[in-house]
Amino acid sequence: MPNSWTGSRHDQEGRLSVNSRSCYLQSFVCCGLLATLMFSSGCTSRREGPSRVAVEGTVTLDNVPLKQGVVRFIATGETEGPKTSVPVNDGQFKINSESGPVVGEHRIEIVSTDDGGYAMDDEQAIKQLREQGIRKIEVVRVPLKYNKRSQLVEHVAAEGPNTYSFELSSQK
């Protein structure tokens, strides 16, 4: 008996015989519907989530620009959103609104990434330094009160400049 929708028939021995043209048409229609559904559900130009903004500023340690480091904006209080890490180079930091922190209150952590130009686990480099008579590598360390134990809090505004100046001291 023919089935008009699928184009299938049973042959004389009772086996199902499928009209290949109908199968091709059904497959084509199903793939088209699936592709339309996938593209319409996943492609929007709106960005979901909290509003992000650009931030910039300066970081000094004992009145000297921090050569290399990171400023972290960590949402706190009623502010919800991801942590934002902004690289510091020669005392300056800047990030655009695509990757910047969300609007609201943030705890600020500042760390130095200046290792004196040498990785502490680079045995060959340390051996060369010793051969040259260099006993100590000057590594810049930001005190814990500005990073893991930081109590610095800043408000990131939706409008206006979000420019910050962090003047750190290594003195207790």
Bin the strand percentage.
25-35%
Helix content percent band: 10-25%
Instruction: Briefly note the CATH topology name of the largest domain.
Output: Immunoglobulin-like
What is the subunit arrangement here? single chain
Fold and architecture overview:
It comes from Thalassoglobus neptunius. This is Carboxypeptidase regulatory-like domain-containing protein. The chain contains 2 helices and 10 strands. Strands 3, 4, 5, 6, 7, 8, 9 and 10 form an 8-stranded mixed sheet that branches. Strands 1-2 form a two-stranded antiparallel ribbon. It is of the alpha+beta class. It has helices spanning 20-42, 123-131; strands at 8-10, 16-18, 55-61, 64-65, 68-75, 84-89, 92-95, 104-112, 152-156, 163-168. The protein is elongated, with a radius of gyration of 31 Å. β3 (55-61) and β4 form a beta hairpin. The model has no long low-confidence stretch (mean pLDDT 79). The longest helix is centred in the N-terminal third of the chain and has 23 residues, at 20-42. The protein has 2 domains: 8-42, no CATH class; 55-168, Immunoglobulin-like (Sandwich), CATH 2.60.40.
